[in-house]
Amino acid sequence: MSWLDVISPGVQSTVQDAGRQGYRHHGLAGGGALDIRSYTWANKLLDNPRNAACLEIILGGFHGVARGQLQIALTGAEAPVAINGNPVQLWQTLNLNDGDELTIGHSTTHRLIYLAVAGGLDTPLCFDSRSVVVREHVAGLAPVKPDDKLTALQPGHELPSRFVPISCRPGMQPDVTLRLVPGYQYSLFKRTDILRLTTSVYTVSEQSDRMGFRLQGPALASPPAGIISEGIAQGAMQIPGDGLPIVLLNDCQTIGGYPKPGVVPSLDCGALAQQLPGANIRFELTDLATVQNERRLFEHHYHQTRWCQNGRSLAWL
């Protein structure tokens, strides 16, 4: 058995997988990794199952010591990383020997870093998921704390060096444009407000977390009145009475009473979740078929490609 002794979890570190499905009618959030691209590539580097649990580290500051042989991968926001004081890069596999110290410094440009181990993390499975939703206080699912042991499901064995091709890495830009798929309440919004929403620049508010990101900027002038509370989904854009958009993320509540012009697709939600307060956000309209096809291709690529011997590219099966 191999594990990582946690010396410091940083600002906050939680175990996340692909999230839980089919439990929202019980009032449970889906949870799961916020940045799907970075999370998925961390697992792909290690040939892990698609939904393997990994560590989502907010802003860095993590420090751990390997016990036994461990194979890990790091992706996400750029931050200084070192093994025994020697700098290493993200977006690659790393082999840790017994006693090796892993330190991840603080990211100053983006929010989320993902640490995967070979086979995935062995933590309690509740409601078909290992994902931690902090506000739900589910027994056994809590943020990582000092002295915790992060155990790998797979026995340690050295892996070849692999690097995510630069062309496949999500762009870590200071400004992002998010797509919006119109929803069935889209027609309730005045055309002038939709035009304002899709031509204005918004900024990420300090009041943003895993439940949702509040945006600041030009308010919609005449948002529709509140609606009867109804089920809501990850990515839904709510417009409260102040006319400023809120994009709901993985840990959002299961029902809400604010009108919604549309939904931000999950891959775009990952780009949003990486942004720090003050980052510029723009919106553009898209259609459901476009974002569905993109997600299908993303998932197909995970399951139908293998690493080439050089460890720097992939080939279709």
TrEMBL record:
The coiled-coil segments of this chain are none
- Which SMART domains does this entry report, sorted A to Z? AHS2
Superkingdom is: Bacteria
Ribonucleoprotein as a keyword? no
Q: Which residue range or ranges hold the Carboxyltransferase domain? A: 25-302
- Membrane spanning stretches: none
Which residues, if any, are the signal sequence? none
Keyword set includes Cytoplasm: no
Q: Which Pfam families match?
A: CT_A_B
Q: Which UniProt keywords apply?
A: ATP-binding, Hydrolase, Nucleotide-binding
The name on file for this protein is: Allophanate hydrolase
